[in-house]
Write a structure and sequence with these properties.
With about 260 residues, this protein is α/β, with parallel strands linked by helices. The protein is built from seven helices and nine strands, in the order αβββαββαααβαβαββ. It has a single domain, classed as P-loop containing nucleotide triphosphate hydrolases (Rossmann fold), CATH 3.40.50.300. The strands form two sheets. Strands 5-6-7-3-8-9 form a six-stranded mixed sheet, sandwiched between helices. Strands 2-1-4 form a three-stranded antiparallel sheet.
Length: about 260
């Protein structure tokens, strides 16, 4: 082959190879952009998007009080308050005292609730009817909602498909937690205050993040007992009430942050 012909073929091959590389680079860039867009949609689908009724609690309205021998501290309006203290200080007992009227620990603080519209999420999640489905458990507290509306709301809490129709006894721990949360959030009439006792126990990080999203949609008062300070900080607290051990007098103190 004459050198001039060989050189022309070489140049043509180089141009063709360059064009092919540019085309492949463009395709890789397009595929990467499509993948990122798909991942973004999946992440969005895995986020909780709730639209909840507003209990319209005036900022001046007192909803609960906590008292020791020297002081009384109040939860009022749409405040977000954490109740903290060492193990054995009686935090759960104090919540059961304010919600159910049980006796507080000897030497501990006392509490009082000033509204009947209170939602309570206990540690044990024992507020569900095990033989009923998620839809049936919600219907029991929200009679005005249709089954379709309940399924739509449960889907916003990432409970979808046949899981909402199975007995809750067959659901996973995370699914059961979301049913309990739905029962709390969708109850009629809407609660003025939600009281949560260690709600992040045994939850993975993704479910904790979803819980934060759900609670940020709620516009009433929040009273939360938790040892998970990262979770509490995400709730953007208005104040923190600390309960001392009964042997130390069970006294209360209040501060602006953890």
């Amino acid at each position: 082959m004459p050198p001039i012909v060989a050189g022309g073929l070489k140049r043509k091959a180089e141009v063709t190879a360059g064009n092919t590389r540019n085309l492949m680079d463009d395709r890789v860039s397009s595929a990467r952009a499509a993948l990122e867009a798909a991942e973004s949609r999946v992440k969005d689908d895995e986020a909780i998007h709730l639209i909840l009724p507003d209990p319209d609690v005036p900022r001046s309205r007192r909803l609960a009080s906590f008292s020791d021998s020297e002081r009384t501290l109040y939860v009022q309006g749409p405040e977000r308050v954490a109740l903290v203290g060492a193990n054995g200080s009686g935090k759960t007992t104090l919540l059961e005292h304010v919600v159910y009227g049980k006796q507080p620990l000897q030497g501990s603080a006392h509490a009082e609730l000033f509204t009947q519209r209170c939602g309570y999420l206990p540690q044990r999640l024992d507020d569900l009817n095990e033989s009923h489905s998620a839809v049936q458990n919600i219907q029991a507290v929200a009679p005005s909602m249709t089954a379709g509306e309940i399924r739509n709301q449960l889907a916003r809490l990432l409970l979808r498909g046949e899981s909402v129709n199975r007995p809750v006894s067959t659901l996973s721990g995370g699914e059961r937690f979301r049913v309990s949360l739905a029962k709390l959030l969708f109850a009629e009439p809407v609660a003025d205050i939600l009281i949560l006792d260690e709600p992040t126990n045994n939850l993975d990080m993704a479910t904790v993040s979803q819980l934060v999203q759900a609670l940020k949609s709620y516009r009433g008062a929040l009273l939360v007992v938790s040892h998970d300070y990262n979770f509490l900080n995400q709730l953007e607290l208005d104040s923190v009430i600390e309960l001392d051990l009964p042997q130390n007098g069970g006294v209360l103190s209040q501060r602006a942050e953890l």
